């Protein structure tokens, strides 16, 4: 269902829209173990979509007690970055325990014939924010760049000199006809010059551009342009489908590799409040020691928010190498947690 926000401040296209699609999954289970398993499945789903298909790097954080979903036992969020160094929350999953079940008397009859309270979870995919992250992570100064699988238009065919040579147009139409059952493909027959068409479709982020003129027709080949690397290559017509599949995979892997490198470079370790302040000013997200993400850590979190205008994002769960720290970056007490701190949308 499409809903509108009641508050009107700080709306931004895709990042925080006034109107958006309200998509959530709410689940109820007989046991705590089943509910926690659903939380893990939510996380796996987020990883499959965000990283493996869209190429968006992220960290799953267990939110602090003071920043979890109201009424939840625990909140887990997928957080990624924007070019300005701010963190944007992506899909989140919440273990609700039996808190809402007891408040609203949600029960089921168990196999032993007794009524029991359900164990609940909820999950929200953050559709528009995911799209914003695709734009931010993969785009460049020439416009959008999409992974092949999710591109609205995957292949654009640009006929060259087709007004003077009918064979060119026929050649292009045959290619479109052969590919359209499997791919999203379109021929640009507008009156723009080839250069204007190239610029337009690069801006739109079409992963592959086919350039076809009299020479390509004569040689039974296609010139293919890759949007992500801006490379051009000649491919024989008989090999074009095999080449498309090869390039689709290479485009995604290239985008993932570039994004992961930038993401890893954006996370730094700090050991003091001064180091934290300097790193945040340089648009970094910081790993540091923290006394607690339980309620006893609220005081230190308030220092971060008031003095640095930043937020304790929580304890990262899926970092390849999660360091440990001896002291809390704020109070100097023993660090019970390693946390991420950054500016949050």
Automatic annotation (TrEMBL):
Organism in which the protein naturally occurs: Candidatus Iainarchaeum sp
Annotated ranges, domain Aminoacyl-transfer RNA synthetases class-II family profile: 1-147
SUPFAM superfamilies with a match to the protein in the record: C-terminal domain of ProRS, Class II aaRS ABD-related, Class II aaRS and biotin synthetases
Protein's UniProt name: proline--tRNA ligase
Xref: InterPro entries: aa-tRNA-synt_IIb (IPR002314), aa-tRNA-synth_II (IPR006195), aa-tRNA-synth_II/BPL/LPL (IPR045864), Anticodon-bd (IPR004154), Anticodon-bd_dom_sf (IPR036621), Pro-tRNA-ligase_IIa_arc-type (IPR004499), Pro-tRNA_ligase_II_C (IPR016061), Pro-tRNA_synth_II (IPR017449)
Class in the EC hierarchy, top level: ligase
Keyword annotations: Aminoacyl-tRNA synthetase, ATP-binding, Coiled coil, Ligase, Nucleotide-binding, Protein biosynthesis
UniProt GO MF annotations: ATP binding; proline-tRNA ligase activity
UniProt key word Coiled coil: yes
The keyword ATP-binding appears for this protein: yes
EC number(s) reported in the record: 6.1.1.15
Coiled-coil positions: 230-257
Classification via CDD domains: ProRS_anticodon_zinc
One GO CC term on file: cytoplasm
GO BP, one annotated term: prolyl-tRNA aminoacylation
Signal sequence coordinates: none
């Amino acid at each position: 269902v499409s809903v509108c926000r009641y508050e009107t401040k700080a709306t931004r296209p895709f990042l925080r829209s006034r109107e958006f699609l309200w998509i959530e999954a709410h689940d109820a289970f007989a046991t705590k173990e089943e509910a926690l398993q659903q939380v893990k499945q939510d996380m796996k789903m987020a990883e499959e979509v965000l990283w493996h298909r869209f190429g968006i790097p992220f960290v799953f954080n267990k939110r602090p007690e003071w920043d979890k979903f109201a009424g939840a036992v625990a909140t887990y969020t997928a957080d990624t970055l924007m070019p300005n160094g701010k963190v944007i929350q992506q899909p989140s999953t919440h273990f609700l325990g039996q808190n809402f079940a007891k408040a609203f008397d949600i029960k089921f009859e168990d196999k032993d014939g007794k009524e029991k309270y359900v164990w609940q979870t909820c999950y929200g995919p953050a559709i528009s924010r995911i799209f914003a992250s695709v734009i931010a992570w993969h785009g460049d100064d020439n416009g959008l760049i999409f992974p092949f699988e999710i591109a609205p238009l995957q292949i654009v065919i640009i006929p060259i000199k087709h007004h003077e040579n009918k064979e060119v147009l026929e050649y292009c139409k045959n290619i479109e006809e052969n590919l359209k059952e499997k791919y999203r493909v379109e021929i640009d027959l507008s009156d723009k010059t080839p250069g204007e068409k190239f610029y337009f479709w690069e801006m739109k982020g079409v992963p592959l551009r086919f350039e076809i003129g009299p020479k390509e027709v004569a040689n039974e080949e296609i010139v293919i342009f890759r949007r992500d690397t801006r490379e051009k290559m000649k491919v024989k017509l008989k090999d074009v489908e095999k080449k498309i599949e090869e390039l689709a995979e290479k485009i995604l892997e290239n985008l993932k590799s570039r994004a992961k490198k930038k993401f890893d470079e954006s996370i730094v370790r700090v050991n003091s409040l001064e180091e934290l302040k300097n790193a945040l000013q340089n648009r970094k997200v910081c790993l540091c020691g923290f006394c607690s993400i339980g309620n006893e850590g609220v005081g230190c979190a308030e220092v971060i928010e008031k003095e640095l205008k930043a937020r304790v994002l929580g304890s990262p769960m899926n970092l390849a190498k999660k360091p440990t720290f001896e002291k809390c970056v704020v109070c100097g007490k023993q660090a019970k947690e390693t946390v991420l701190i950054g500016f949050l949308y």
